[in-house]
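Reading a protein record of the kind used here takes little practice once its layout is understood. Each number in the token line that follows is a code from a learned vocabulary of backbone shapes. One such record is shown here in full, so that the layout can be seen directly:
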Amino acid sequence: MMMSLPSNPITRRIALLGWSVRRLSLTLAAAVLLVFAFLTGALVVFWIGIPITVALILAIRVWANLQRSIIGEQLGVDIAAPYKPLSGTRLDQRTLALIREPATWRDVAWLAIDATLGLIVHLVYLGVFALAVYYLVQPLLLATVLDPSQSTVNDLRFYDFGTPAKALMLVPLALGFGAAWWRWGPLFLRWYGQLGAKLLGPTANALLTARVSELRESRDQTIDHAAAELRRIERDLHDGAQARIVALSLTLGMAEELLHNARPKEAADLVGEARQACSEALNEVRRLARGIHPPVLADRGFSGALQAMSLDHPLSVSVVDRLRGKLPAPVEAAAYFAVSEILTNITKHAEATKVRILVGHVDGELLVEIYDDGRGGAKAAPGSGLDGVRRRLAAFDGTLAMVSPVGGPTVVTLKIPCEPSPLPAVAGTAAEDSTID
């Protein structure tokens, strides 16, 4: 997660000073890279210029990534690298793709801007601050450290402020510089940072292409998941309920034959076995139906289903319900099975003693936080249960985030965009957080 600058005004401006100094160092590096770019342009007509050009482009990418990190820190946003994967297997193909990459030339454009305009921006910002401090401390320095007779630091041609008393006349100027730096400096840097973010970040077309690719991948995963679910249902029906019904039919046939042979007692025993087999087949079908869409979701809603799940769980599970509305049925089912899978993982691997589930709706998203006090170190490795949860949520444009340091605790956060429908108001009752242990 990208860290932003502090919100406190004083600490924020101190942080902006450090940010500007770091950006100034990158600006000086940009000037050096720009000089090398001009020299490389003259060598590119010779074969030796091609590997130098590739090395220079890679160096500019490293510089641009540092810029994205620092600008993102200042603006409080994540600036994604817009580079496409290099196509081709041969070295010349990959080199050509690197040179043809549009993001490469936007990096070069920002390199030229930062080496010129950036230098002016940061020198002005830091210079105004330096002047404010300089004129503010001059009276004290002239009174204690500097020799007024030898000092010409305050000779402004039209008047020499070379004594402590005269230097006090510069304090209003220092305060003016300080007020301008305090008021307009952050806006000045933010404008320049936004300019950099626009050039260094992905374009609208690139974002749209990435979004289409993400949706295509999500669709493919959803289709694969649906096909796997259909195969599971078919297998469970074939190996479970269907086998029991076939056995039931055979048992009833044998009972019918015994009745025809006047052996009612043995026929009654077989009818009893058939009734037991019928009950088992019915339970098998019910378990299968619960795997498709649990009835408790239809009866009690998402929060009620989680509370029922917590009561049946072997660990101590508490549910904090801050959800005020009825979720769409597909979202309910996806979130329910996701929480169920995560609780199963906690039971198998986490060595936890207690679990807390927080359910709410924040900024147009269903939010589910699952906390456990286990040993931590959990990872959503490809093919794992958590990876399956992530793929299930991706079908709804949802996300799974996990913080699981070694030693614990582990916090898994599920987010699914949705808008719940409001629950009917109940007269004489007040809405409060519902917690069940």
User: Anything to note?
Assistant: Residues 204-260 form the longest helix (57 residues). The longest strand covers residues 354-362. The chain has three domains: 9-200, 216-292, 297-436. Residues 246 and 416 are 43 Å apart (CA to CA).
